[in-house]
Amino acid sequence: MSTATSKELTPNAEAAEPNKPPNYKRLTDDDLFRHSSQYRFWSFTPEQLTQKRIQVNAQATSSVGESLRNFISENQANLAEEDIKSIEEKAVPVTMEEEIKLVSIYAKKLQGIAQHLNLPTEVVGTSITFFRRFYLENSVLQMHPKLIVLTTIFLACKSENYFIGIDSFSQKTKRPKDSILKYEFQLLESLRFSLLVHHPFKPLHGFFLDIQAVLHGKVDLKYMGQIYDKCKKTITEALLTDVVYFYTPPQITLAALLLEDEALTTRYLELKFHGNFQAASDSTNQESNEVISKSNLTINFDVLMNLITSCKQQIEKPTTVSVEEAIAIDAKVQFCSDPNKLLRKLKRRPTDSSLTQFPTDKRPKVSD
Amino acid sequence: MEYTKEKKVGEGTYAVVYLGTKQSTGRSIAVKEIKSSAFKDGLDMSAIREVKYLQEIQHENVIELVDIFLASENLNLVLEFLPSDLEVIIKDKSILFTPADIKSWMLMTLRGVHHCHRNFILHRDLKPNNLLIAPDGQIKVADFGLARTVPSPHEILTSNVVTRWYRAPELLFGAKHYTSAIDVWSVGVIFAELMLRIPYLPGKSDIDQVEVTFRALGTPTDRDWPDVSSFPAYNKLQMYTPPSREELRRRFIAASENALDYLCGMLTMNPQKRWNTVQCLESEYFKEAPSPTEPSKIKIS
What was the pLDDT predicted at A16? Predict the structure, then answer.
């Protein structure tokens, strides 16, 4: 072994920064996010989002209307005038606003089930996200939310690499395997085959560390821990609102931080934008000591504050629905997809064989 | 039907691959049909990973996911058609390639891998057979069936990833946590294989892989990899001294000093000291002569 010729294997530390070509540009995190499926498929302006929901609802409403008219004309002979009147009165397609309400009730239920299954926060978040995205592509009139809840959780687990076998999943949720598996393809298709969800949880961890670096010695670690846990909960709540379609994950994180401690968050951001970081100069963390270089700034302090403040206000106002209202919406959805159900409910339903099966109803008939 | 399936070209445990054409444009494509029946738990995990990560990556050096469709209860991934791969080329002794060609393949591979890493995606199965070659000579990183998101600091992972010969030492030790450094190791082994034209660390079994790896590159010690001796398997190891520079020169006869630095950077035992993709891409190896061959000018047939 010749030591005389052996050379250090480490790269040259003194190597100068190479000259960059004239068109040199380093991709920013913003650039990367703009290429994500979350940005490409699932980010909207409020107007676009409303438009999307109007369209989904209008399509479903017209197809339900047609099915109901067919049902009445096919069963004309067996239906009393009052029956027809009841169908026309009660099997009314739900409005877009009612759809939003029903979806948000079931999203909340889904959250409860996912938490009951002890799934990690991220998996719960992905389940909620998948479920809500599904109803940007489908109407509750086409697929009742209760049918897709477990499929959503099941797929979210797999997508987040938190695999639970179908046998075990079916046992834990007390639902037949087939009822969970049969909608998996439809769900995947409605998700436009995009499964990677960027949640605000990762940025939360980043801000958590950065706040401590920037406000070095001025924040209590235990207090920061409490803020962290509260923010995690707030973020999960935020995932149940439309802010996920309007803001980027780190913006939602900042809104959650603002909600928990406005003074701290504002002070942190002020320092980040305007500070000289003298206070933190003894910190060993180089990156956090960097003042954001002016050329890298894509946004100014006031714009960001306005943005996250309005995001915060939307998080604070989640969709709330009373139990009565929920039951009423649910009934309309059920009557629309199965007018027989309405007739049964009215106890006026003629014998089973006299009515043709309503097309979307695949459940066995139960006589009253 | 927008896509035709003309010829079956491969069959794996979870998918069948066909060559076909996109009808509206006449473009050649490959259709990967996922066998739904093969998996009782619904959609297969490999298929989910492949869809999940390929949807996020659009890069010249990563295989393009053209489309996805459902047909007769099966999920079909439409991928760009890639006629060859590095394994085929390494094995075909009638093909002669130059150090400049190797440099070009390395550059393209690293660009693709770097793009995955900066999107927080680990490939976890890099090997010559997964580096496909497009008709225009571009390398495309393919097969994301084992990919995952870069783990958070305390996440527990399975070390049973990466095809054996390309498995980093931390995986051989059964580490419960690892980073994107495992992909860089694989690229290093592929680089060695391209120069040697035979597999560099061909372990016959998982146990043999440990032996082969450390015999070639030296058994790591706590000095250059703190706490490496605390891995359960460490005590059973045969201690080998790392190769001297002269031994490396003799093994890789055509490699320049910068090429050897680059190789050693990627094949550093300690994952924290191992080069990352940026260090690799900025290394002197890529700056010195010869320049990487223009991809379309590499002769592979």
Answer: 43
